[in-house]
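Following up on my earlier thread - several people asked me to post the actual chain instead of describing it. Fair enough. Here it is, all 471 residues.
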Amino acid sequence: MARPFPLDPYMSKGFEPIRMECDYANLIVEGEVPADLNGSFYRIGPNPQFAPRGNYNPLNGDGMVHAFHLRNGLVSYRNRWVRTQQWNLERAAGRSLFGSPHNPAESDSSVAGMTTDGVANTHLVWHAKRLLALEEGHAPIELDPSSLETIGPWSFNNRLPRNMTAHPKIDPESGEMLFFANFPTGRLTCDLAFYVANADGILVRSQIITGPFPTLVHDFVVTRDFVIFAICPVTLSIKRAMKGDPLIAWEPERGTHVAVIPRAGNAEDVRWFAGAPCMVWHLMNAFNDGDHIVVDVCQQHAPVFPFADGSPTDHEQAKQHLTRWRFDFAKSSEFATERLSDVVCEYPRCDERRAGLSYRHGYVACEGGPGTGDVFHRGIGHFDHSTGLMRVYSAGPRCAVAEPVFVPRQGSSKEGDGYLLTNIFDEDRNASHLAIFDAQNIEQGPIARALLDHRVPVGFHATWRPTDASP
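Reply from S.P.:
Thanks for posting it. Predicted structure:
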């Protein structure tokens, strides 16, 4: 028998799961959806279909995709769970079967020792005419972009050995998709696997980069000429866990190490730079600047993980700020840092037509998040790298705002000329809406809201597919 969901901060209010799949042919819209905003906005996040067997971690929740299809000023909606092996087994049983990956003893005896294709709950990417649902520990799962039907795991014609990152990068000039895998063998080693798939989705490059210690690497960046990995001192150790100490720990004495690899070279050509200890989960963009490389990140002084001896870190240090890293190839093996804004922020994005290139406009979720005492973000920000100013739209203390995604205005090639899309959960309505902003004037509020009568549970990431993309 299915059990009720526990009283958990990450299973209540904006995080509370929904129990249904549904379709809306024509959402009620406040304001006016721009006539040239034609395409599909996909949001993904954890939405467990049954109460967890042990302590809940959103990273382990079943993935659900929410699709908002926009065309000629109208908005339709559809949501579907990603039908992973785990989802199918638990749906047939009518209850949760799997414990957390770090505590397999929590799993039901009927699935003991079983490996599955993951939960597919973290991000989505549209590449080579495929919509892929992503999470770090497994291969992507392909979905039909219109119906959201689960097609199944995609391994690049069996060329992907195991897993891939939830944050691949699409080169706007070549159409290549660059991505990596942390712990590519499934063991907690120092290795990262780096891959390149061409514009047709064929895996054309694979290599191993060995870091200084096993760590959590969630995101990376590329420029026209380089690939950059940040190795931060959040370490993983089975030996430590076997002694009763934390599996994942903050070891600031190890410092931060950044690998810079020429895209035209190989792993032997890596150049290492060192810096002060910090943690970064998401990076905004990077570009070459003469003999320098510029990398913009959301940086924490320290994450919420405990120290290696189990003692707690200061949660105030978990606040994230937009920070610029600068690497001087000619003069130094250390990198310099500069805080760009005092606004606490996360989930950085840019106009992806400038990914890997010099750029001006960046976008973040802000006003809340780790270290602030508020698990939700309450606003979105637009950072102008030319003026150094962060302009903010505040949704209010009873609204939770998700990661914003930039969509260019149809026919415009000017960076930042377009729209910013996000989902906002309204606690007073106990429902969410799709909010559409003029990307140049976000502080004026949404120019349109497409209203749902249920929640889009606050999750992780989103992507956009224009209608001129081949289905």
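The chain has a mean pLDDT of 95. That should answer part of your original question.
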